[in-house]
Design goal:
The complex is a heterotrimer of chains A (329), B (289) and C (260). With 329 residues, chain A is mainly alpha-helical. Chain A contains 13 helices and 2 strands. Chain A has a domain of 222 residues. In chain C, β9 and β10 form a beta hairpin. At the A-B interface, α4, α5, α10 and α12 of A face α3, α4, α9 and α11 of B.
Chain lengths: 329, 289, 260
């Protein structure tokens, strides 16, 4: 609720420099152009993970983000590939559509708590996959392919952004786009958590009955938060569809939903930037372990279990201790 | 009609056993065992190896599946869940751990058994044909019978044995059980082993019908979650009811909806969500909150 | 004395069991009214019915002549009838001051989006919340522990924190759930004085449910006695002390239930 400290501003500046200047320099120097794709994926998955983190913030374990990511991916893909809508508009529509769906689904299921909510959200991912397989508009198992690259944006005849297919390096363009959206998402998340809504969420996380006794409309707040969470999921999914230029019912599966949850846990639930770090660690870790071939999953899962066993409060709990509690002030 | 009924009983008996294991673990330790499906797969592969590969009698293979999973379950509880539950007050940590274990078991299955679909020779040949009203291979009937027998044996064990009574006390109220002198740590391990064993047993039974492959773990877990939600988490009768309800829904769905394509599960999922909106605690679960 | 809160023939059944049976009484403006009774008399159920945390089977609760039973708890709180909880129900990982600030939800003038964007109204609100929190903690004698984490407070102060959270909502009627349970005589005295001053200095009407007889006799303007879900007596503390039915109800139950 108080202002931003200079230390936080400097940290944020360094972070921006690192992702928008540092990473391109390092990649140019090492020639690992494939890292752009990895980091773009990290950025868009971080956006979806941010939503999952937010539902944790009201005390709900959300293993259904894959469902909303898939919804977002399909909405954007259908709008761009079939209706010829600009990608940028479709991105917003995808987020909003996912949010509307989440309100409809959330009305009944947000009454559930603990593992019950977790189980039903897990099932949700499966439902959306099946819907995608069954509906004619989603093309069933064949999916939607050859989605055009994002077009340009012009305002009052002035071109702000050139179309992606005219660019020399679409990988870099996607990386910058996903990173900007990620930064915006986390800024919004940080602001939300530190504003009154965040404080109310925290009160609900700790005790819903007490929160309602002080006049908080807990059902309403739960819906709002779930909608924002799913909005992030939809945005992340739409980005994914655009980058891979295709969407299939299997683009986001139950495993992905579980991974979104893992990202949040691993980064640490007490820290706003936890899910970003968690996504980076998990996704990069998985990628780096690729060289291990068939032992990849084994090593990955053993490392995961060790972290849970010995760092139950997430990676950020290692360095920040009590100082950097994102949920604090 | 009779065919659908028979299929329902056959599926329901298998499902009920899977749900029983999951709900037992949940009731005892408040752990949602994501790895339950993987345990089922391991059970299937053990039976495949011993009966299908080594050619030993089927019953030996089935017992080996049970023992393997019981030991595996006990180890997982003792060295992973117990310390994590002690070290962290949040129930989320155990869920995370369960997900990690699911990945680990998947990795182990991949390394040890490979990713191919495996099947075993039929345990009995022939098909029952009752006037074309019920057509069912004998091996399915046998497996179904074994499953029902196991369920009855499990219930009897929980009702009448000392261990079963201790487990039930533990499930009802951990603190009270401790005060009554139940060795909580020991019975948690036993309960987890028992739950894992049930998963392994179903794996061993079903491998003779459907075969087994790496990818069956996740979907099996999801089905188990659904059954537990239908019946009410942590309630034995609920798990059995949930198993049979899902089994019948699947049997009916496949018979009635098959001409519309693969939408049986979609219908089941959506009706489950409507059902939970009306009755969040499931059929037999206790209301909470 | 005009009735602020009217409990009219309230009944609650759980399955075949009648927990509260046709209970009626009034609470006047600026009064402290206590509901007492042996264990299992239906006190907590009645308490939850009045604060709308449970639905009534029949009968109704009126506040300023308007029906408040069967509304959502937050709506009832919004109207000015706020309940507290027993000590375990707090915002565990918030500090005392944070708890009191978040509890001023109903005093907010800005919208939730306004706080997100940091509008002028929102900034004014935040400053006002802080000032009021400090004032309230001062009044409660809790200024010294403002920055303490709620979960670190000793039991007696937890109860005070619960009352502070309730007061932060600016209630007209404060419902206290066993405010003296588990306290030693000294703590009880302090809390009795606190509750008295909440009523006198801040003009809050108080309805409390309690087990501890001496404290109740000390603090209450009037007392309602429940037994087996029914009202068996109502009157001033001295009337209650001499009421045959009350003595019988309490003696009829086990000694330890009389309260120490």
């Amino acid at each position: 609720m108080n202002g931003v400290t200079s230390k936080q501003l400097i940290g944020f500046g360094i972070f921006l420099l690192a992702i928008f200047v540092g990473v391109p320099i390092v990649i140019a120097a090492t020639g690992r152009w494939d890292f752009y794709f990895t980091l773009t994926s990290v950025a868009l998955l971080s956006i979806a993970s941010a939503g999952v983190w937010l539902t944790f913030y009201i005390g709900r374990i959300n293993i259904g983000q894959g469902a909303f990511a898939l919804i977002g991916a399909y909405v954007s893909a259908i709008l761009v590939a079939k209706a010829g809508v600009s990608f940028w508009i479709s991105l917003l529509v995808a987020g909003l559509f996912a949010a509307v769906v989440s309100v409809l689904i959330g009305l009944p299921i947000l009454r559930l708590r603990g593992v019950y909510f977790a189980m039903i959200t897990l099932v949700l991912t499966q439902v959306v996959t099946l819907v995608a397989l069954a509906l004619p508009i989603t093309n069933g198992a064949k999916g939607i392919t050859s989605i055009p690259l994002p077009g340009g944006i012009s305002l009052l005849g002035l071109q702000i952004l050139p179309p992606f297919d005219s660019m020399a390096d679409t990988k870099l363009a996607f990386y910058i786009m996903a990173s900007i959206l990620m930064v915006l998402t986390y800024l919004a998340l940080w602001r939300l958590v530190n504003s009154r809504l965040g404080h109310i969420c925290r009160s609900m996380q700790q005790n819903e009955e007490l929160a309602s006794s002080i006049g908080v409309n807990i059902a309403y707040i739960r819906i709002i938060i779930f909608a924002i969470s799913s909005f992030f999921g939809g945005i992340g999914g739409a980005l994914f569809g655009s980058i891979s230029q295709s969407v299939y019912p299997s683009s986001f599966q139950v495993t992905d939903s579980v991974n979104f949850m893992l990202n949040c846990f691993l980064g640490g639930l007490g820290y706003v930037f936890g899910p970003m770090l968690g996504t980076l660690t998990l996704y990069f870790g998985w990628d780096l372990l690729f060289t291990l071939g068939k032992y990849q999953l084994l090593v990955y899962s053993v490392l995961l279990i060790l972290v849970i066993r010995f760092l139950p409060n997430g990676l950020l709990s290692l360095r920040l201790g009590k100082l950097g509690k994102g949920g604090g002030k | 009609m009779e065919q659908v009924l028979a299929n329902g009983i056959y599926l329901g008996a298998q499902y009920a056993m899977i749900a029983l294991g999951l709900t037992l673990i949940f009731a005892l330790m408040n752990v949602l065992n994501f790895a339950h499906g993987q345990m089922y797969v391991i059970g299937g592969f053990v039976t495949y190896t011993i009966y299908g590969q080594l050619g030993l009698p089927y019953i030996v293979a089935l017992l080996a599946s049970c023992v393997t999973l019981a030991v595996l379950g006990a180890l997982i509880e003792r060295f992973l869940f117990a310390p994590v539950i002690k070290g962290s007050a949040r129930e989320e940590s155990t869920m995370l751990l369960a997900a990690g274990i699911a990945f680990l078991l998947d990795a182990l299955i991949l390394l040890i058994f490979g990713e191919k679909q495996r099947g075993v020779p039929k345990i009995v040949n022939g098909v029952l044909n009752w006037d074309f009203r019920i057509i069912m291979p004998y091996d399915r009937i046998l497996i179904c019978g074994l499953a029902i027998f196991s369920i009855v044996a499990f219930i009897a064990f929980m009702q009448f044995s000392r261990t079963g009574r201790a487990l039930r006390a533990l499930a009802q109220d951990r603190t009270a059980a401790q005060l009554m002198g139940v060795n909580v740590d020991r019975y948690s391990t036993i309960g987890f082993a028992l739950g894992a064993m049930l998963a392994g047993l179903v794996g061993g039974l079903l491998v003779t019908i459907t075969g087994i492959n790496l990818g069956m773990g996740g979907p099996t877990s999801i089905k188990a979650f659904m059954m537990v939600m239908i019946g009410g988490a942590g309630v034995i009768s609920g798990a059995i009811a949930g198993g049979f309800i899902l089994g019948f829904m699947e049997a009916i769905g496949l018979a009635v909806l098959s001409q519309y394509g693969d939408i049986t599960y979609l219908v089941i999922f959506i009706s489950l969500m409507i059902f939970l909106a009306i009755r969040p605690q499931g059929l037999m679960g206790k209301p909470w909150g | 004395m005009s009735a602020l809160l009217e409990v009219c023939g309230v009944t609650k059944k759980f399955g075949g069991l009648t927990a509260v049976n046709d209970v009626s009484f009034d609470v006047g403006q600026n009064e402290i009214l206590s509901v007492i009774g042996p264990n299992g008399a239906g006190k907590s159920t009645l308490f939850k019915l009045i604060s709308s945390f449970l639905r009534t089977t029949s009968g109704e609760v009126l506040y300023e002549g308007k029906r408040i039973s069967d509304l959502k708890p937050h709506v009832v709180a919004r109207l000015g009838v706020v309940r507290t909880f027993q000590e375990t129900t707090i915002f565990k990982s918030m500090t005392v001051r944070e708890s009191v600030i978040v509890a001023q939800h109903l005093r907010a003038k800005a919208s939730l989006a306004g706080y997100f964007w940091g509008t002028r109204t929102a900034r004014a609100d935040i400053a006002a919340f802080g000032r009021y929190a400090d004032e309230l903690l001062e009044f409660m004698g809790m200024s010294a522990m403002a920055e303490e984490l709620a979960s670190n407070l000793p039991q007696g102060h937890l109860r005070a924190l619960g009352i502070a959270i309730g007061l932060a909502t600016d209630p007209k009627v404060l419902l206290l759930d066993e405010p003296f349970a588990g306290m030693n005589p000294e703590e009880t005295m302090r809390t009795v004085n606190l509750v008295r001053s909440v009523c006198d200095a801040r003009g809050v009407t108080i309805l409390l449910v309690e087990h501890d007889m001496p404290a109740v006799m000390n603090i209450s303007d009037r007392i309602v006695v429940l037994n087996f879900g029914e009202k068996i007596a109502e009157g001033t503390p001295s009337e209650i002390q001499n009421n045959e039915k009350v003595i019988e109800a309490y003696l009829g139950s086990a000694d330890d239930e009389v309260g120490i």
